[in-house]
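Much of our argument rests on the idea that a fold can be written as discrete symbols. In the encoding step, the backbone of a single protein was reduced to a row of integers, each denoting a local shape. This step matters because it turns folding into a mapping between discrete strings. For completeness, the protein is quoted in full, as a sequence line and a line of structure tokens:
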Amino acid sequence: MRFDRMKVFSGSSHPKLATAICAELGEPLGRISSVRFSNENILLQVDENVRGCDVYVVQTACSPLHDNIMELLILIDALKHASAARITAVLPYMPYVRSDKKDRPRISITARLMADLLESAGANRVLVIDLHAPQIQGFFRIPADHLLAAPLISDYLLRKDLHDAVLVAPDAGEVKDLIRYVDQLGLPMAIIDKRRVADDECAKAVNIIGDVKDKTCILIDDEIASAGTMVSSASYLHQQGAKRVLAACTHAVFSGNATERLANAPFEEVIVTDTIPLPDQKRFPSLTVLSIAPILARAISCIHYGDSVSRLFTGALQPVVR
């Protein structure tokens, strides 16, 4: 099905990214107005005609998380009742993406709940980037396009001297993310073997599978939250004789004192994308932020015109540093 008109709207979580997406598309950002009442209820009003339009709503998971979730659901519902022809929820970082399995009794698989809520609100499809677990895509009963940041980050890394580089997974669970970069960069890989001595202790590195001595090590992960894993991995790699250590991830969650940890860790560079907004207080000298806007804009264009989204995974993407 083809649509004549495209419109992009943004919640309040990441307007800078939404504006950059619109700039790539050559489309103006849709106008909405919002009111927060004294009882903390939110009123959202779409300030332009969307009847029959192909609408995209950009909202990412960041603080205040639950306000942003409700704002997203209310905006989708408002657009549905304003007779938008199709509504796509663009989620650069999906809320509750790490809650993907029942790993303890009597808990919610909240990522599945989020999928149900989006569909109930009126979303016709979703667009996400680097899900923590690929099977989350199957939680949706509506079309879900899963984009990868690996081509963007890989193109940035290819501009560096990688003659002695090795890609490193901080633990065995991250090998799935590492393989994407191995395919793009053609570099050897290594895995840090971690063991948990007791349930109340953090996992500790006990071995390295692969050669890192006198190498430039590039740690790969899908996200950095508290930064404990990345920082301890960097220290361990230096202990094993690594010459330089870089880190690369898609989602810069940077919770708690992660920024301070990363700034003081032995990283030459920490490379992330802007799926999550990073205020000045969460930035540090060795941090590089690549814009995900070109990937999202191309995906939106493919969806709107009925082209294949999978073609975005082949061919170079020029990284934009923001």
User: Anything to note?
Assistant: The longest strand covers residues 216-224. Residues 173 and 258 are 21 Å apart (CA to CA).
